[in-house]
Design brief:
Chain lengths: 317, 510, 309
């Protein structure tokens, strides 16, 4: 570690005069290279399975069973996608449901999380410890499936509505506490104090000063929440019968569960015809492709907020 | 301390909320019976339940949950059913299909939440019959059967009703179908022909040896002679207490009525020696103990495996594999308590109209028109008749109405397809009649008094069974270890409890 | 009484802000908590709804908890759960922070974005899928590892029955899958640091290393502490798929792969008892709560602002 810091010192110290084009506070090309190699290897290990998954999803099921995973399969096939596309119309409908739930859900989540987190981030809020604990406690204890089901179906009467997919997962104590930490660390007290002296209301401070400064934090929670809604399949399993309201993940997981179940219980379920010929493995991979690609494309949208640094000074003015 | 105060405050909060929930919950029970005046109280006289009872009964709607994929044309067929049912028993049905993989997750929640549904599919493998019957999810139906289910009693093999009793009561109407179960060896016919094997002689695990050897020596290395996954177990002639993943049972060949530890039986010990020998000879996959499933059917690179059968099963297997598969039985067909509960319909304990529900089930199990309507859809739309009882599917069937026939009521009433053997249902009945009845048939074990022990032992079974039962490890070394660990976890206590319950049951059923 | 009212009025703006969220917590989290009573009951269904069923079911005290402690496995599963979690929490923290800092320093921002997207991908894979890939490396006959071993003249290893490798495999996979997700929070936190701090430090001649040490890390400290304290709350829970699917439920590996969640799953397959599963959840929660309360108390003593509550 000592070596590392020493060599860094050297390179950084000698850096400024050398090239004008480089940011004077950047790391040296050597370290940049070392970091690049390390991170690159790790990143490749992460992306490699995906390339594999795409290949497997186009592999012929029998070839897969005979040869195992292979990056250059002998026989290619579209069977897996054909199998999934049998419910093609349904899939488009489900994608629509997922998009609606994800967008509405994320917007509402951001509103609820940021207001709650802002309030408990403020030192002059007398009940902030109580409300912090109120939120935190729910991270550990839950009442289980049945009581939650009763609240949604019998108290709120949300069964078979879009809201049953949104409300139960709209808030999460983890988001609130992360958000609160962002607020306390990135928003200097001085800014708030000066705004107060200028006569701004709490709500005004929240919308005009705190939110703009905390964009990276908001983007983080927005990302987490988007992924959460996108990947959620369990709410629909419990609350939705209407095929027009089934989200994509639920649709795919259901196909998967049915295949698994029928194969496992083949002696009971009289379906010898289906069990052995279902393209199980390749379909599984094709489903990962279908479910992941759209959301992976959405990722760069959030990413720009994590990579660019922010200058709070500019907000201050 | 401050956090103490906070916890206290939370507790108070909780209780206030719980009482709020109570209010909501009970309110709702009343609400959701929505206007259906509790017509369960009306006294339809039993004899009239069949034909003209229609005009004397209040109209009711029955909420029915069935297993299987949701079908596009179900509303259409349901409307047709409702016309008929209104006529017959002045009831309509509202059927919800819940997918295979979801059913066992969703129905327990729906049931525990106290929803007032009327009928649900239940079985030994999905939305488990036994625990739910024990825990009060279903209504005991003996009186209802007597009053409104006479046709069921008439049509059904009586052993179904005996076999599905829990503490002397019936909690569901079994579907009339195959009752016995039977394990068979399956063989890839290609190799049977090639080596001119006489598979009719194969019955025991030991009998397989020369054939496995022939394959191992004569075929390339990628042909697995005995292609089984980790779930494989040598055939054990036992009447299991809690399924074959729990080591307690009664020897089928003895008459003393004693539950024993199967792992200590001589039969198992000798089978384990054999399977160990096979494993070492390379007849099984090397990694069999961790193999969830095996792709043998798809690849065709196998010689033998094992499966549970029913009449004409090999036709179906061959058809789906795309090559011929032949079988040879490991045992005679046997009827266990569990085999009677393969597919049933229960009436919910929260049903507002149990009488009408039973009338509906009665029709479903005896009325040929209704039974085929729910199974195959509408004649002319979903299928066309070739002769009296034989049909051919129309395209609409494949696209919009594929129902799981065995989960819908008396299977023997359904039409057959033209490619089916003509004597299919006769063969099923013959299969049932030829079966041997297990000594504990009709006895259902209640694990509640020893559930701690059962849970611990189940976890140990998962650790030891796959490697021992597939021969992947030396049984002389590992079997005693497994037995010792299970005994520590209370195996003897479970056996004693089982024996006690069985003796009581036996005394009551003399 | 009047004091409280006064206080509430004084804080009315904040109270209005937390109101929607608090209402959600009450309805969706606290109302259902009443169901936890099942842990102490022999749950039966009674006509009249869930509430009736819970109330009328018989009290059984701590009987539903017994199977968690009744065998020798109790020690193993507790040890495994705690050790794996401690390992994953600690190493996960180091990895996430390191990746975030490196990613932030890389000269080529485009590449940095690409890496970051790539690292996020494993998060989308289920453990079942990952277990397939692991299997393609580790299977006895055709696995990559064994082929390499044979190539170098070594004996093949039957990986799925050799316990000694698995703690490393599992920790590695656990870290690998969540690294991208975990580092996002820290990346965002770094992005939120006021650049003028660095500018000032540079003018004072601080090296890059010193900037990281004296600006970046201290700015990340509250987040690191809070996330770690929160993670402690889940110390008795584990990522089920990692410990069940990835080792392919291999019995020989149980000594190093069995954790509380897998043990309970295996034990309850035959009976599926609601009371016992609720009891397990409650046990895990209570231990988590105690740990978090202790940790939070300690953090509070040292640096009040870093406490969770």
């Amino acid at each position: 570690m000592n070596d590392l810091s020493k060599s860094m010192e050297r390179t950084v110290l000698s850096a400024p005069g050398k090239k004008k084009t480089r940011d004077i506070n950047a790391i040296s090309p050597l370290w940049n290279f070392i970091f690049n190699v390390g991170v690159c290897l790790f990143a490749l290990s992460c992306i490699f399975p995906f390339i594999f998954i795409i290949v497997i999803s186009f592999t012929d099921e029998k070839t897969l069973a005979l040869n195992g995973f292979s990056i250059l399969p002998e026989v290619l096939s579209l069977d897996a996608y054909r199998f999934l596309m049998r419910s093609g119309e349904q899939m488009v409908q489900s994608l629509g449901v997922t998009l609606a739930v994800t967008v509405i859900g994320t917007v509402l989540t951001l509103y609820l999380v940021s207001t709650y987190a802002y309030a408990i981030s403020r030192k002059n809020f007398d009940q902030r410890r109580f409300f912090s604990f109120l939120a935190f406690f729910t991270m550990l204890f839950s009442g289980g499936l049945v009581p939650g089901y009763i609240v949604v179906t019998q108290v709120l009467h949300l069964r078979d509505t879009l809201w049953a997919l949104i409300f139960p997962s709209i808030l999460n104590a983890f988001y609130i506490i992360v958000m609160r930490t962002f607020f306390t660390t990135t928003v200097p007290d001085a800014i708030i104090e000066s705004a107060k002296i200028d006569g701004a209301t709490e709500f005004g401070i929240y919308t005009r000063i705190v939110l703009p400064i905390s964009l990276p934090g908001i983007a983080t929670i927005g990302l987490f929440s988007t992924l959460g809604f996108w990947n959620d399949w369990f709410n629909a399993l419990l609350y939705i019968d209407n095929p027009n309201l089934i989200p994509l993940q639920t649709l795919l997981i259901r196909i998967q569960n049915n295949m698994d179940f029928i194969v496992q219980n083949s002696s009971q379920v009289v379906s010898y015809d289906i069990a052995a010929t279902l393209p199980t493995e390749t379909v599984r991979m094709a489903m990962v492709v279908l479910a992941t690609l759209p959301i992976a494309l959405a990722y760069p949208f959030f990413q720009k907020y994590f990579i660019q640094g922010l200058t709070i000074g500019s907000v201050k003015e | 301390m401050k956090s103490k105060k906070m916890v206290l405050l939370m507790v108070v909060f909780l209780f206030a909320l719980a009482s709020g929930l109570a209010g909501c919950g009970s309110n709702n029970t009343k609400e959701s019976s929505d206007g259906n005046t509790p017509s369960g109280t009306q006294s339809a006289s039993p004899t009239e339940s069949g034909d003209q009872a229609g005009d004397k009964l209040d109209p009711v709607k029955l909420k029915v949950y069935l297993i299987g994929g949701p079908q596009r044309d179900l509303p259409m067929v349901q409307e047709e059913m409702n016309k008929y049912l209104t006529d017959k028993i002045n009831a309509t049905v509202d059927i919800t299909m819940i997918d295979w993989g979801d059913y066992s997750k969703r129905l327990p929640v729906i049931t525990a939440s106290g929803e007032n549904y009327d009928i649900a599919f239940t079985s030994s493998w999905a939305f488990d019959y036994l625990p739910n019957a024990t825990r009060g999810a279903f209504l005991p139906i003996n009186d209802l059967l007597e009053k409104y289910g006479q046709d069921i009693i008439k049509e059904l093999d009586p052993r179904f009703l005996t076999g599905s009793q829990v503490n002397g009561k019936n909690y569901a109407v079994p579907v009339n179908k195959e009752l016995a179960s039977q394990w068979v060896w399956r063989f890839n016919k290609q190799y049977v022909d090639k080596y001119k094997m006489d598979i009719t002689k194969i019955r025991n695990l030991e009998d397989l040896e020369p054939y496995l050897k022939q394959i191992k020596e004569g075929e390339p290395a990628d042909i697995t002679p005995l292609a089984v996954p980790k779930g494989f177990k040598p055939y054990m002639p036992f009447d299991f207490l809690l399924g074959d993943e729990f080591p307690v049972g009664m020897n089928m060949n003895s008459t003393d009525g004693k539950y024993v530890n199967i792992l200590e039986s001589d039969e198992l010990k000798s089978s384990l020696k054999t399977i160990r020998k096979y494993y070492q000879a390379g007849y099984l996959r090397k990694d069999v103990a961790t193999l969830e499933g095996i792709d043998n059917i798809k690849t065709g690179k196998w010689f033998a495996d094992r499966e549970q059968t029913q009449p004409y099963a090999e036709l179906g297997w061959s058809r789906s594999a795309g090559y011929d598969i032949v079988t040879s039985p490991m045992q005679d067909p046997v009827i266990f308590t569990g085999s009677a509960t393969g597919s049933m319909h229960a009436i919910s304990a929260n049903s507002k109209n149990p009488e009408r529900a039973m009338m509906f089930l009665n029709l479903l199990n005896s009325d040929k028109y209704l039974r085929n309507l729910i199974n195959y859809g509408i004649e002319g739309t979903h299928y066309k008749k070739i002769s009296e009882d034989v049909i051919e599917d129309l395209p609409a069937m494949k696209d919009g109405y594929q129902m799981p026939g065995f989960a819908l009521g008396n299977l023997f009433l359904t039409y057959s397809h033209k490619e089916d053997p003509a004597d299919k249902w006769e063969a099923f009945k013959e299969f049932n009649n030829s079966a041997k009845v297990a000594p504990s048939f009709g006895f259902n074990f209640n694990p509640d008094p020893v559930k701690t022990e059962v849970a611990s032992i189940s976890a140990i079974v998962k650790e030891f069974y796959p490697p021992i039962m597939t021969g992947a490890v030396d049984p002389d070394e590992h079997l005693p270890k497994a037995i010792a660990k299970m005994k520590d976890a209370g195996l003897d206590k479970v056996i004693a409890e089982a024996q006690k319950q069985y003796d009581e049951w036996k005394a009551a059923h003399k | 009484m009047q004091g409280i009212l006064k206080k509430l009025i004084k804080n009315r703006a904040f109270l209005l802000l937390v109101l929607p969220g608090a209402a959600w917590f009450i309805i969706f989290a606290y109302l259902p908590m009443f169901g936890t009573i099942i842990a102490f009951k022999d749950f039966r269904i009674h006509p009249g709804g869930f509430f009736e069923s819970v109330l009328k079911s018989e009290w059984v005290g701590f009987k539903n908890f017994e199977f968690l402690f009744s065998t020798d496995d109790a020690y193993i599963i507790t040890r495994n759960t705690i050790l794996y979690n401690v390992g994953l929490i600690m190493l996960g923290l180091v990895l996430a922070v390191t990746l975030a800092i490196i990613m932030n320093e890389l000269l080529n921002k485009r590449l940095a974005k690409f890496y970051q997207t790539a690292m996020f991908m494993p998060y989308f894979l289920s453990w079942v899928i990952i277990s397939y890939f692991v299997f393609s490396f580790l299977n006895v006959e055709k696995g990559v590892f064994n082929q390499l071993l044979v190539f170098f003249g070594e004996d093949p290893v039957s990986w799925y029955s050799e316990t000694k490798f698995w703690p490393y495999f599992l920790i590695f996979l656990g870290l690998w899958k969540n690294a991208g997700y975990g580092s996002v929070v820290y990346l965002a936190a770094i992005a939120g640091i006021d650049r003028s701090y660095y500018e000032a430090a540079m003018i004072d001649g601080a090296t890059k290393w010193n900037q990281i040490r004296f600006i970046t890390l201290p700015m990340l400290k509250p987040l690191m502490i809070i996330l770690t304290v929160l993670a402690l709350g889940g110390i008795f829970r584990s990522d089920f798929g990692l410990f069940y699917q990835v080792p392919r439920d291999s019995g020989a590996l149980y000594p190093v792969t069995n954790v509380i969640d897998t043990f309970v799953y295996r034990g309850l397959t035959i009976m599926g008892d609601t009371g016992m599963s609720t009891a397990t959840g409650l046990y895990q929660s209570v231990v988590g709560l105690i740990l978090v309360l202790l940790a939070n108390y300690a953090v509070r003593k040292i640096e009040k602002d870093y406490a969770v509550f």
